[in-house]
Amino acid sequence: MSEPKAPTTEESIQQSEYEVPLSPAYLLDLGRVTAILSQIDSMLSEALSSASKTPAWAAYIFAGKATMTAKIKMLESMLSSIPEEDAKKSGKKLVKSLHSVNNDRNILFHGMWVYQLNPKTERGSPACIWQNNPPIRPADLATIAARAAKVSRELGAFIGAVNPSFGHPPWTKPRRFFLT
After folding, report:
1. Going along 3-147, which residue ranges are E strands?
2. Which segments of 18-176 are extended strands (E)?
3. Which of 13, 22, 69, 140 has a CA-to-CA distance to 126 between 20 and 30 Å?
4. Which pLDDT does position 2 carry in this prediction?
């Protein structure tokens, strides 16, 4: 017996309750943003482990149920106890960067892709809307992905500063992450 065929992107979109107003190219951009933001979320647990000198397994258990906002705040509260001044300084800059991409993350992960109506033209344009935040437009996704990638490198550099074994891998970047 053969495996059931997975639906195509178009079929998946057509099967949802509401239309997803994104082209295949914008869906790829959204996928890139999602993949990078999930790296950042996971790397935050590593940063908490490294900054607090806590075993990784304990930090992952402790931070596993925490929101990204809570993890950023935990990291921010730890910065004063880091003895290395350069790491402390880069950590403060990192926290600002993390808050910025976290706001985009919240809009994208908790918001909904809709047609935002312009009352003057009576036309709608695609946008991801969440609470009172400015909407994210499809054309913003590539920029958000690039900014998130930069923050992931900033986060990696911070982890390397507080945990030297992380900072000098024997391979080139981007790293490959293997898990068993």
Report:
1. 112-118, 123-129
2. 112-118, 123-129
3. 69
4. 75
